[in-house]
Amino acid sequence: MKIIYHSHSFVEIELESGSILIDPYITWNPTIKINLEEMLNKKILSVVLTHWHSDHVWDTEEICKKANCLLISTFELSNYFWVEKWIQNRHPMHIGWEFDFWGYKIKLTSATHGWWVWNLKSWYTTIPAWVIVRAEWKNIYHAGDTGLTYDMKLLWDYDSIDLAFLPIGWNFTMWIDDAVIAAKDFIKPKKVVPIHYNTFLMVKANPKEFVEKVWEVWKFVEFWGSIVI
Ligand code: NI
Ligand code: MN
Known about the structure:
Blueprint: E1 2-7, E2 10-15, E3 18-22, H1 36-40, E4 44-48, H2 54-57, H3 60-67, E5 70-74, H4 75-83, E6 90-93, E7 99-100, E8 105-110, E9 116-118, E10 123-125, E11 129-135, E12 138-142, H5 152-159, E13 163-167, H6 176-187, E14 191-195, H7 207-213, E15 225-228
Parallel strand pairs: 3-4, 4-5, 5-6, 12-13, 13-14
Antiparallel strand pairs: 1-2, 1-15, 2-3, 7-8, 8-11, 9-10, 11-12
Helix pairs in contact: 5-6, 6-7
């Protein structure tokens, strides 16, 4: 299976049937290499969201409407996109067990991060999520925005992660040293990719430092590229 790390927290999982987009952030993303048109030329199965912050949901409405793909998120976030953005093709779920989407399974577990969803008229609260994707006999873990938490140990105990995406960008999420603990001591994935760094002033980290500190050197650590697992 091919997985493309597009920068920031935007990860694309390419299955034979199409792509799953996690936290698509293209417009206004200063580090993105693909544009929205190119993205929409691909077959998109679904958009999966970890949480509502703009650097994770920015292009969700447009992608979901133009590609008519499925929006997968927590129940409250799903309601927000339904009521406020008129997105019908959606699958609300919650922290708990995985759901089978024919060809891939999605499981949400809880991250430690911001809860609030709002616009000028209304607001919603939900829980920020980690996403676990199971497809083609592989388990992929996307930590979204999160601090270090001991719950990550459960991923090693029960989920056996082949590929983990961990934020290292400081201030809003884990820092390099936290992510190293998460990878080495808690999750123990077969491969790990740092995300959510060097996009904004308050999101900064040297991915090479992460690589040096983690036990397995990751080839695409500082770049955008394809990962085959
Ligand atoms: Ni966030
Ligand atoms: Mn973020």
